[in-house]
Amino acid sequence: KDGVLSYEGLCGFLGQQPSQAKKPIFFDMKHSNNAARIRLWMMLKEGAQDLIDVRMLTYPELKTPEFAEVNPLKKVPGLIRSDGVTVFESFVILEYLEDKHRALSPSFKPLTAEGRQLMQL
Questions:
Q1: Chain centre distance of CA 21
Q2: N or C: which end of the chain has fewer CB within 10 A?
């Protein structure tokens, strides 16, 4: 299916045994400004670093058919949710992570519609 890696395919791409792949996996590169947004969120959100595995990629790895299943644009950031669904684009990943882990502190989303609108400017 589009946007969903098979469990076995995911484990193979990551070089893991199936029992190891339970956390969401964030794909990053050292010099990516867009991926840095997610990196910063993970550093500032209490406990987030324990909930998400990080894979640092090299440029040649971005061009593999396996990574194209994570992000068809063949760039970072990319996220594979724990259910195998892939997510890309930093804004979409950040929205998902903040919604998914809203119980962790601090909250980065204002409570009101007006506050969220201002945040998006």
A1: 14
A2: C
